[in-house]
C-alpha cells in the first residue's frame, strides 16, 4: 500500500471545507439574481415565456448530461479505474462550475459590482467546466483528486481571463468554442502532462487496460456526448436560423465522423476488426471540426466533409502521433485530447477562417452583420442606417473587412494556444507538490488507492496475470 502521504483523510476535507467557506462568503457579497430570477422584477402578470429560463434551461440540462454522464462514463474505460473515472469527474465538475460562476462573473461585473446569476451564467460556467474536464483527460489515472481540484482551481481563472481578453480585444467569431474551449483545454492539458511526465509509463502499465464492462460503460458516455453535442455547439449562437444551422451542421458532422471512424478502425487494424477505443473517441471528432463555422452558411456538404476530415486526422493522431509525442516530447496524453480536441480544433479554426473570408451579403443578406457583428458599419455610417431599416436593433460594428476579421481569428488561435500551454506548464509544477498526494507509478490507474473497493474489483486482472504466469512456466 502507498505511504501515508497519499492519504486524503486530512488534505481533501481541509481543501474542500475551506473552499466551501470561501464560496459562501464570496457568493454572499457578490452574487445576486439576474432580472429573470428576481421576484422584484417579476410578477404574476409577467408572461412566463418572456423569462430566459424557458429559452436556456433545455440547453442547460443537455450540457449537464454531457458533463456528468457523458464525460463521466467516457472516462471509466480502465478496468480498475471506473470508480475514479466517474467519481473524480463528478467531483471536479461540481467544483469547477461553482468556481467558474465567480471567476467569469468577475470579468462581467455590472454597474452595482454584483454578479447577476441566471441560467445563462450557469451555461457559461458549464463551458468552463468542460474545458477543465477535457484538460484532465491528459492526466487521467495519474493524479489524485486533490491534484484535479487544484488543477481546476488554477485553470478556470486562466481560461476566464483568456476568454475575456480574446472576446474583448480580438473580437472573434467562435460559436462552437473551437478556439476558446477545445484548443485552450487541449494545450493546457498537454502543458500539465508535460511537467508531470512519468518515464516508467512510456512502456505501458499492467493496470492500463480495459475490460468488456468498462468499454461498454465508456461507449455509453460517447453516446451521451454524441446525442447532446448539437446543444453544446448551438448554445451560444443567435436564436433562430443561426441556431438551426448549428444543430444541423453538428449532427451532419457527427454522422460523417461516425461512419468514417468505423471504416478507418477496421482498415487500420491488421486483423481487420473494430477497436473499441476508436468508437469511444474518434466518432465524436465531427462535433469539434464543425465548431468554428457551425452557425455560418457553409452548406451541409461542407459540414459532412469536415466530419470526415476531422475523423481522419483524429484517427491517425491516435494511431501514430500520440505514441510519437510520448516518446520524443514527454507528452503522455492519456485520453488523446490532442487528437480529439487539438488536431480537430485546428482544422475547425482553419475552416472557420475560410468561411469568414468568403462570407458576403449575396449569401447571407443583411443578416451577415448579425452573425459577423464586427463587420457591421461603424456608428454614423449611412450604410448602417440602411441596414437598421432592414434589421431593427442592429448595432454598430467596427467596419472590419472579411480579411481583417480572418486575421483576428488567426491571432486568437495562436494567442490562445500560447497562453493555455504556459498556464498548463505552470499548473503542472504546482501539481508536483508532494502534499497534493500524487499516486506513485505502481498505483496509477487503480481505484484501490483512493476508494474502499469490493474484494473482487481486480479479479479479472488477477486471473489474467495468473494465466500469463502459468503459460510462462
From TrEMBL:
Pfam families per the UniProt record, alphabetical: Ammonium_transp
Protein name from the UniProt record: Ammonium transporter Rh type B-like
Alphabetic keyword roster: Ammonia transport, Cell membrane, Glycoprotein, Membrane, Transmembrane, Transmembrane helix, Transport
Record-level GO cellular component terms: plasma membrane
Primary site of residence: membrane
Family according to the record: Belongs to the ammonium transporter (TC 2.A.49) family. Rh subfamily.
Free-text function comment from the UniProt entry: Functions as an ammonia transporter. May play a role in the elimination of ammonia in the gill.
Domain Ammonium transporter AmtB-like: 26-433
InterPro entries: NH4_transpt_AmtB-like_dom
Localization (cell): Cell membrane
GO molecular function: ammonium channel activity
Biological process (GO), any one: ammonium homeostasis
Topology term for the membrane: Multi-pass membrane protein
Transmembrane segments: 12-33, 59-81, 87-107, 119-140, 146-167, 179-197, 217-236, 248-268, 301-321, 342-360, 406-431
